[in-house]
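Exam review. A common question shows you a sequence with its structure tokens and asks you to describe the fold in words. Practice with the pair below. Do the first one on your own.
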Amino acid sequence: MNWLLDLTPDEWNAVRLSIRVAVVAMLFSLPPGILIALLLARGKFWGKSVLNGLVHLPLILPPVVTGYLLLLTFGKRGPAGAFLDQYFGVVFSFRWTGAALACGVMAFPLMVRAIRLSIEAVDRRLEAAAGTLGANPLWVFGTITLPLILPGIIAGMILSFAKAMGEFGATITFVSNIPGETQTLPSAIYTFTQVPGGDAGALRLTVISIIIAMTALVASEVLARRVGRTLEVE
């Protein structure tokens, strides 16, 4: 077990950066994830199929393509990147924030899908009953819908986190592989596989990646069940 914890400073940096990137990607994806899931589950508007396709596009596109599109859009010379840099001093390309953006984009479809399925499973009669008692739609969502879809939100968050932890193609294309700045666990493992004698480091980081991902998935299952039992009791 000691060999697993005997990480070099660069390896610890990769672990900490991966967790930081995954958490930031998950948290910033949550509000738009809930909104878009609600639109796809309940909305009736022109272009709904197009929106659904755009949301799920990162799942079927090669990750390198997604990373390249992010570079074209949010790079320093890209339209969004130049605007954010000039007026807000925010830079994504070749920064850890760009890694969080890439991970968030790649994990977004999984979050939206989990939340959307949870919304579609809600009994609309409960919401209608609250509406007949005079509650406005926002109050109905906050007091009826949101608690009922909480297990789906938790599942979506954990899936997003796990996906972000393992993202490689889009990240390395958009922000490169800079130790201490953008080198996440997958990038560090890739680096170890390219140098002589790097097998031990690659194996250590691989085991750590598996442990973190499995812990996240098990935690998601446990939390979802607890929330579900709590709602049943109430």
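Now try the second one, then compare your answer with the model answer below.
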Amino acid sequence: MRHTVSVLVENKFGVLARISTLFAARGFNIDSLNVSETEDPAISRMTIVVKGDYSVLEQVTKQLNKLVDVIKVSDFNDVDYVERGLALIKINIKKSTRNEVIQLIEIFRSRIIDVSQDSIIVEITGNGDKIRAFIKMVMPYGIRETCKTGIVALSRGQLTK
């Protein structure tokens, strides 16, 4: 099972290293990790995606809460939330296929951010399924490079996670 966890931490040197070491020491693999400053520059939000059953999630949560720099740990599995990722994809392009690729970009509500003679760079945001589907659709044209962010997530409505 896939778990998305939000961790508010003090924005200090070494916090990311301590948290990633915690995961590694317990044999948990991080599928996605995103860290950024919040609206308060003294606090950062980490969005961590990890796979495992509920006992894994419970152990991760308990271990995170033991760290001094951790302010709050929230699991998004029991709340309604929004998550997004971002990918930049460099696709081979020919005059004969340019219109087809552009149509796919429009269908997936993506953006062209760079065009050259023989390639195009596309920015796509959405959940993992949308990004994987887009990559699958443009793969026959030839993908030169991809770069993806980790997942970012926030709970919907008034609930603050």
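Model answer, second protein: The mean pLDDT is 92. The first strand starts at residue 2 and ends at 10. Full marks require stating both points clearly.
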